[in-house]
Specification:
The protein is of the alpha+beta class. The chain is built from three helices and five strands; from the N terminus they run ααβββαββ. The protein has a five-stranded mixed beta sheet with strand order 1-2-3-4-5, with helices on both faces. About 25% of the residues are buried.
């Protein structure tokens, strides 16, 4: 399965959950539901994955925790905030860079329409690859 196919599954599941569950719950609830639904689609899902930070040979094993990794290739960061801001987007990009992953999704379940709460982020994107 390609990263883009994984991404389509993530968006489909996020929209499904948003339609069925009222917005305003804790991020941890959406995390459990999203992981469950993605597993139901046959995807390998890990929650709260540590992302180490390496600085001058010193490794901090738990510099950050990504909410969800799908197939060890796509990172999902969940939010339940009134509006996403640049700090949220930079957080996901930092996770992608530190984990050396190409694709990530920032999902804000507090939006009235889920499509307004989906931000796709690509790390080191090469137009020739698409």
């Amino acid at each position: 399965m390609t990263e883009d196919e994984i991404g389509r599954a993530i968006v489909d599941v996020a929209v499904q959950i948003h339609r069925e569950i009222v917005p305003g719950l804790l991020e941890s609830v959406y995390e459990v539901l999203l992981a469950h639904e993605l597993r139901q689609r046959g995807l390998r899902v890990e929650r709260q994955v540590p992302i180490p930070v390496v600085y001058q040979g010193l490794t901090f094993d738990e510099g950050f925790r990504a909410d969800i990794f799908v197939e060890s290739r796509v990172i999902i960061e969940l939010k339940c905030v009134e509006k996403l801001n640049n700090a949220h987007k930079k957080q996901l990009l930092t996770y992608l860079r530190l984990a050396d992953k190409r694709l990530g999704y920032l999902l804000n379940f507090s939006e009235a329409l889920m499509k307004q709460g989906i931000t796709r982020t690509v790390n080191r994107f090469n137009e020739a690859e698409s």
